[in-house]
Amino acid sequence: MMTTPRTTLTRSLRKPSFFLAFLIVCSAFWSPCFLRAQATTPSPKLSVHWEELTASDFREGIHRSQGTCLLPFGILEKHGPHLPLGTDLLDVRYAALHAAEQEYAVVFPEYYFGQIAEARHEPGTMAYSRNLQLALLQETTDEMARNGCKKILIVNGHGGNDSLLPFFAQTQLDKPHDYVVYVFDERTPQHGGPAKKTKIDMHAGESETSKMMISRPDTVHQDRAANESGADQARQKLPEDVYTGIWWYTRFPNHYSGDGSAATHELGEYQMNWWIDSVVKAIRAVKADDVSLKLQNEFYEKSTHPLDTQP
Ligand SMILES: [Zn+2]
After folding, report:
1. Which residues are near ligand 1, the ion (C-beta closer than 5 Å)?
2. Distance from the alpha carbon of residue 267 to the mean position of ligand 1, in angstroms
3. How far is the CA of 256 from the centre of ligand 1 (A)?
4. E strand spans, 7-120
5. How many angstroms separate the alpha carbon of residue 159 from the centre of ligand 1?
6. Helices H, strands E: what count in the chain?
7. What strand order describes the sheet that includes 180-184?
8. CA 240 vs CA 231, 233, 243, 249: distances in Å
9. Per-residue model confidence (pLDDT) at position 26
């Protein structure tokens, strides 16, 4: 990487003694000296964790990530009888942190303030109000952007957020922002890997339990997975294209969908690797995207005088 030696050099130039020595040595052999400085300065390892960086390392992290930051989004909710409340948070952070290690990005700390009204009847659920979910997320991304995160990739770890996050992204068009919100909302591959044994597998089931066997095996109590039923109780008689907020409770009142006892380490390894690879690809695509912010700005400008917009 060319960026790191240059920054290290810039920092040492701020100290007078270094600067003087640099001038004396390099006055005679300017070009070889400069090249040697670049060749021998090792690239310092930067943490991908926002909270672990010093202020000056944070500046370097934003530079190295080209302003790309991840916001892994979890939740606190019951996960069957056998997985911890923070399953989605633990899993999504595992995937996002490993992805950022491969393709550098600054990763925001634990965030779990999402949509989970449907689990308010279960112990340990933290269900923030609708307005607060949106306001807190907006202030969080605004503050991230003020600190240089001009491309914010929300990596969603919780199925209950799958309406909230596209809605949040859409509402970024309400007024100008100098950054772009991207949402990545996949956690499980549709095909490939070890054959699955269960058909219903939506929450704390075979896939999710398998992934937790990779990210935090010490928190998985697989021997308890069959203590409750994760079967679809199908109690609501409505056509599929008619939506109600109570739909989940009508089908899975134990907040368990599937059978975690079918989980295996092999399935978890396959799915977690797929997830990490997918986030790496998303980070690379976001870094390469030079269109969204440009067109977002064009859109904001045009939206101030819509009568002038011509086909
Ligand atoms: Zn989950």
Report:
1. 87-88
2. 16
3. 10
4. 68-73, 106-107
5. 7
6. 11, 4
7. 106-107, 68-73, 151-156, 180-184
8. 18, 15, 7, 15
9. 39
From the CA of 254, how far away is ligand 1's center (Å)?
14
Cα–ligand 1 centroid distance for 263 (angstroms): 14
Q: How far apart are CA 243 and CA 207, in angstroms?
A: 26
182 three-class SS:
strand
pLDDT digits (tens, 9 = 90+) for 238-263: 999 999 999 999 999 999 999 999 99
pLDDT digits (tens, 9 = 90+) for 67-107: 999 999 999 999 999 999 999 999 999 999 999 999 999 99
Q: Which residue matches tokens 């002038």?
A: 308
- For residue 263 the two structure tokens come to 């989980």
In the reported structure, the alpha carbon of residue 260 is separated from the centroid of ligand 1 by a whole-number distance in angstroms of: 12
For ligand 1, the distance from its centroid to the CA atom of residue 213, given in whole angstroms, is 13
pTM summary value: 0.86
